[in-house]
Amino acid sequence: SVRWNLSAGAARPNPQGSFRYSSINVTQAYLLRSTEPVEIGGKLRAALNGLSFSSPETPLRLADAYGVEGAYTLDFPERPDPAARPRVARSVINGTYRGFMELIFQNNDTRMQSYHVDGYAVFVVGMDYGEWTEASRGTYNKGDSVARSTVQVYPGAWTAVLVSLDNVGFWNVRSQKLDSWYLGQEVYVRVVNPEDGANKTEMAVPHNALYCGQLHKYQKEQTPHHKTAAAVRPLAAQRQIVALVMLVVGALVFAS
């Protein structure tokens, strides 16, 4: 397996390798099972734990900031329910701020999968063929696993990662196979600081944010990029260069 050389004097996600992830209590654990695409409501869909994500009209983070109800639900299952029928949903994982989450990606598809976690670097602590069980934790690398944001999951196998939820926001966990992602194989993790009523832990909404859905009334008129000063300046410089080149070429022609 790929491991971190902790004896080398190199940069790491934590000062001097002091982040002892094996000694931190796991506060949440989710087993995310993927299967071959299935037909839901007459359309081909891909899912995690039987839920195929459908993007809402109102962006999730803006819906949260403005108190829009019904944009999503906080009931994503910790384990797949074998008796439940696959369905389209907007179910979100309710992450605990400064908690320590375990994510197990179980690939029951026949194709290689890669999964990406936005907003974080995760510790890749284990992978193996077959079905993940509670006993699989005994095989985890608890000392020198690598940190990354994208992990591979082989067909008929699993990959386990650990992540410290210290970054506030709505973070996407998705399949990196574009067809699976397009068909709904993704989920969001909501991380909110409950002690930060003024929302100082998170960056403010950008001035050029796009408001849509139930928040379209907040949308400000925006200048198309090609009409902004930032776009005009390079264009003017390009014209000057072209004119200069033409003058030089003309001078050389007449001189000859």
TrEMBL record:
One Pfam family hit: Cu-oxidase_2
Source species, domain of life: Eukaryota
SUPFAM superfamilies: Cupredoxins
Coiled-coil positions: none
Gene Ontology MF annotations: copper ion binding; oxidoreductase activity
Residue ranges of domain Plastocyanin-like in the record: 61-195
Family designation: Belongs to the multicopper oxidase family.
Identification of the protein by name: Plastocyanin-like domain-containing protein
